[in-house]
Amino acid sequence: MNAFLPNQKEQETERFRARILCAFLLVFLGFCTLLWRFYYLQIVQYANFHTRAEENRITLLPVAPTRGLIVDKNGVPLVHNFSSLTLEIVPARIKNINELLDELNEVIPITEKERQNFARKRAAGKRFDSIPIKTRLTEEELAKFSAAHFRFPGVEVKARFFREYPFGKIAAHSLGYVGRISSKDNEWIEEREETTNYKGTDQIGKTALEQHYEFDLHGQSGWQQVEIDSAGQPLRILKNMPPIVGSNLKLTIDIRLQELAEKAFGKRRGSLVAINPQTGGILALVSMPSFDPNLFVDGISTTNWKELNEHPDRPLINRAINGAYPPGSTFKPFMALAGLEYGKRTPFQGINDLGFFQFGDHRFRDDKRSGHGWVDLHRSIVVSCDTYYYHLANDLGIDLIAQFMSPLGFGQKTGIDLGKDDSGESKGVLPSKEWKKKRFKTPAQQQWYAGETISIGIGQGYNAYTPLQLASAVATLANNGIRYRPHLVESVENPVTGKSRKIEPRPLAILPWKRKNVQVVQNAMRDVMTHGTAARIFGNAPYQAAGKTGTAQVFSLKGAEYRASSLKEHLHDHALFVAYAPFENPSIALAILVENGGFGASSAAPIARKVLDYYLLGKTPAGFEFTTPKISEDAR
Question: Is the pLDDT score of 302 beyond 70?
Answer without folding.
Answer: yes
